[in-house]
Amino acid sequence: MNLPSLLELVTWRDLLDVGVVAILFYNLLLLIRGTRAVQMLSGLLFAALLFFVARTTGLLTLEAIIEKVLIFLPFAIIVLFQQEIRRALVRLGRNPLLGRRTISRLEATVEEIALAVAAMASRRIGALIVVAREEGLRNFSENGIAIDGRVSYDLLVNVFTPGTPLHDGAVIIENGRLVAAACYLPLSASVELSKRYGTRHRAAVGISEETDAVAIVVSEETGQVSLAVAGNLARDLDGGNLREELLAYLRPESPRGGRRAR
Q: Domains in the chain, please, with CATH?
């Protein structure tokens, strides 16, 4: 079959079909890049490869065992990748036409946060700021004091100033709005966290373990700024570093990761 004949067999529907599938797989890879789902997916692929080897080489016992296990594969995928599936459904519900406006608002919000954190660090004012990504934080914001105000340098500094009614607990930010203050967060039980870390740091790591949010901590003892993401803690950040880290994590399609707490 020559090339012109082959081209005649390929219709625009075929090209559209291949293009849509390629886009779906590309976005799936972006979704799990940098997450623990990559290791899970590698394990599933290894199990499938082992099943193929067992079948082709006649290892009947191994084949039977893996075949029984693979029956539960769809349920395992739902359980193991529930966060990624939820995140994908959230993205499907977004309006792509608002992307540029969202990025501009994000940059303005990050700038206000970075300026406030730098000011509080210089004055050794303890603070805990949680910024939502794709998963909602309503369960945690409801146990605090509702504010629903635009994120600004003045608002953040005033909230955490010692002696004010809202300085204890965490501030939760969603979609450029300071949703609530004085919120209580789950504490991390990780044994990898150094014992020198206090409640704020453990709460920051805890919320980042349970959700995809990022949490900024300002230590009132040292003025040190830390960033918790996915159960990891990046330390010794200044205003510029914090701004870059936040933009990297909060922009669409950003991977989930970080540096392990020490």
A: 3-92 (no CATH), 99-250 (3.40.1700.10)
